[in-house]
Amino acid sequence: MGSGVTSSGATGEGAAGGGTPGEGAAGGGTAGDSLSPAARALCEAMAAAFPGPGDVTALRAAAVGGRSTGPEVASVRDGDASGVPVRVYDPAPGSAGRPLVVWFHGGGWVMCGLDTHDAVCRSLAAGSGAVVVSADYRLAPEHPWPAAPDDALTVLLWARAQAVALGCEPGRVVVAGDSSGGNLAAVTALRAPELVAGQLLVYPPLDAEMASASVSPYGEGHFHTAAHMAWYWEEYGGDPAHPHVSPLRARDLSGLPRTLLVLADCDLLRDEGLAYARRLGAAGVDCAVHLYPGVFHGFLGLPLPAGGGALASAAAWLGATS
Asked: Which residues belong to the active site?
């Protein structure tokens, strides 16, 4: 990794460990399978119930079901952020000076929403003490790029303006998201680095070219397939070379805020995340990588040790944002 980048891997599923994750980092499964036995069983069950690429209606229906419930949060309310629907999670109403997290959900820019990621947002709010604002940005293909990143920036600007009223410190705003939401968080930080104190990027797609080395071994048989990812990119639209589509293509990453990248080792997007971490470090950005072996794309919050471990460590990182 480059200067300024630290790494925090996982030994087994979610226990903190040392070492520097590389592009050939070891998995945690049985011989011939990089997934752990528990992750393999869950992966197969999820894949069997998940439609192939191409049918937006079927994919959206599949994304709604089977979600777990998160912890109780003192205040959860729906609102409007300059025209973008949001859900605000406040674990301690009446407090002041806390971090404010603007969360962008995953789903390939074509599916998911406030309800599908409710448990994750509850967990992050409860674990960090921060107020979490979850953004219900417009989806493709009805609203292709740049609708989603424009909505993301709108919510960030609204959140900054409302920070004090929400009991938060305007200088402690973090953008965060998983998968395509991680892409939106990275793009939002590129567009307005002066407005954010940190970015939490959970297995984000960062380059529409999809040419990294991890695509080949993990593009099939690990739930999130290369065929799905290519179709998501196609539906999303935009110029693949534009840094607000593919943040890894940005020429200059200096000046970006403190960053945590949470990655699954058995994920076709793994090496894009590692490449981004190296570039951030080379640009002098404080960047940490939490790489979890033996698990697949989408593991955050799933009933696996790594799922809960990653949520807890990400929440702790958010709570320490200053």
From this structure: 179, 267, 297
